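sry for the spam today, last one i promise. struct tokens for design, 295 residues
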């Protein structure tokens, strides 16, 4: 069994991005983060994204709003960022409060600044296998991890548990693409799938994106499978100063010995999400230069 080390791969990617950003001189890419409410996990994720941006020379702006902000007011804030030429990327941290329709918000982000890839236009371009698409960061990070491990995905059976817009749906699309990192047969499973284990046991590559701690257990996997754990669940742990620890959607200790490759939590998919966000921000910046050349 080999660990797919997201920390190592992401740090490699970030170093290359930092070198690229340095070549831009004084002009720097800038990403704007929007956070609504005080969800501790969202606060922590956005902080991590800000820190990483700063580390590689990308500028960032953070706009925070109370849980009570109206959808219209949030749309107005996005409009301001859409028309601000000094902002190249916009990220609205999910989840948003229940009174706000996430798709309306995501679709309002200028598709050229949609570094999260949640906008309908970018999801459409992804389906069309258009290189210009911004691909959502966690799925893109998963593909990068699998690619760097030298895994041949052609003809493999990928089983995705989860059908979210953020991970489940786009990751299946990526494994389907007519590319070296695709050409897989993809099965989507979700909370209404009967006999889930029947499907998961057939997976050569299993992507667990359910958001339930330790949900995938040893009897649910095929020996030698590649296990991608997308879950980042906080569970109470009195021995920690924070009072919690992070566990994935996969019961790591019992599943790992059966797997050929497995992503740990933390240190697997999580760091890749942040690295791919930086990569998308650089892409948005470079595409903006093509549209508005300075010389
Ligand atoms: N919430 C959980 N993952 C993500 C992500 O990749 N982007 C955004 N915007 N929100 C998230």
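last one done:
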């Amino acid at each position: 069994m080999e660990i797919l080390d997201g920390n190592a791969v992401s740090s490699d990617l970030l170093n290359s991005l930092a070198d690229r950003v340095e070549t831009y001189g004084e002009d720097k890419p800038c990403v704007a983060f929007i956070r609504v409410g005080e969800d501790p996990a969202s606060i922590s994720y956005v902080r991590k994204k800000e820190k990483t941006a700063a580390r590689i020379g990308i500028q960032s702006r953070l706009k925070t709003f109370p849980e009570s902000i109206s959808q219209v007011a949030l749309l107005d804030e996005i409009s301001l960022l859409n028309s601000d030429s000094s902002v190249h990327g916009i990220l609205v941290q999910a989840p948003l409060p229940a009174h706000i329709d996430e798709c309306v918000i995501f679709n309002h982000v200028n598709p050229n600044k949609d570094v999260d890839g949640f906008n309908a236009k970018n999801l459409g371009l992804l389906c069309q296998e258009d290189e210009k698409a911004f691909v959502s960061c966690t799925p893109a990070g998963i593909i990068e991890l699998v690619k760097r491990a030298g895994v041949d995905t052609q003809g493999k059976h990928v089983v995705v548990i989860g059908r979210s817009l953020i991970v489940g749906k786009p990751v299946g699309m990526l494994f389907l693409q007519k590319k070296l990192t695709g050409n897989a047969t993809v099965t989507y499973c979700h909370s209404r799938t009967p006999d889930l284990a029947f499907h998961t046991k057939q997976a050569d590559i299993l992507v667990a994106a359910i958001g339930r701690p330790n949900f995938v257990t040893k009897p649910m996997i095929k020996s030698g499978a590649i296990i991608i754990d997308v879950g980042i669940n906080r569970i109470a742990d009195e021995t920690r100063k924070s009072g919690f620890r992070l566990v994935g959607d996969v019961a790591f200790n019992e599943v790992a010995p059966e797997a050929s490759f497995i992503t740990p939590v933390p240190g697997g998919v999580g760091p890749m999400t942040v690295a791919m966000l930086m990569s998308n921000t650089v892409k948005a910046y470079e595409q903006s230069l093509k549209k508005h050349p300075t010389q």
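The mean pLDDT is 97. ok im logging off now
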